[in-house]
Each structure stands twice: as C-alpha cells, then as structure tokens.
Amino acid sequence: MNKRTEEKTKKVTMTVAETAKLLGVSPQCIRVGLERGAFRFGTVVQMKRKVYVIYRSEVEALIGKGKA
Q1: Pairing state of beta strands 50-55 and 13-14?
Q2: What are 4's strand-pairing partners?
C-alpha cells in the first residue's frame, strides 16, 4: 500500500484504541463486541492474526457526529 492510499484509509477507518477512547470503553470491549457481532460499525478479519476494521463514519453516526 502506498503512502497516499494509507493516508486515505486512515481517514475512513479507526483503530480499536481510537474507537474505545471515543466511546469511553476499553479496547478489549471493542474487540470482543466486534468479534461477537454486537457492534455494527466494523468487522473482524481473521488472517495470521485478527484485523479489526472500524468505519469512522459508522462510529460518528452512532455518537451523532456524522453527516448521516
């Protein structure tokens, strides 16, 4: 992935830590919630290790900051 694509992706997605801080919960809560399907703002992809994909627009819509 080139730097430009990586920067664009960063704006579209969030890390587990960013999401946890924004929602006021632990990173573990975010990981478990995504794994169990309790949170619809992201998904888990099983590769060599788990990759958590969290969509910024979905989280912002959940807390009322989004344009949706």
Answers
A1: antiparallel
A2: none
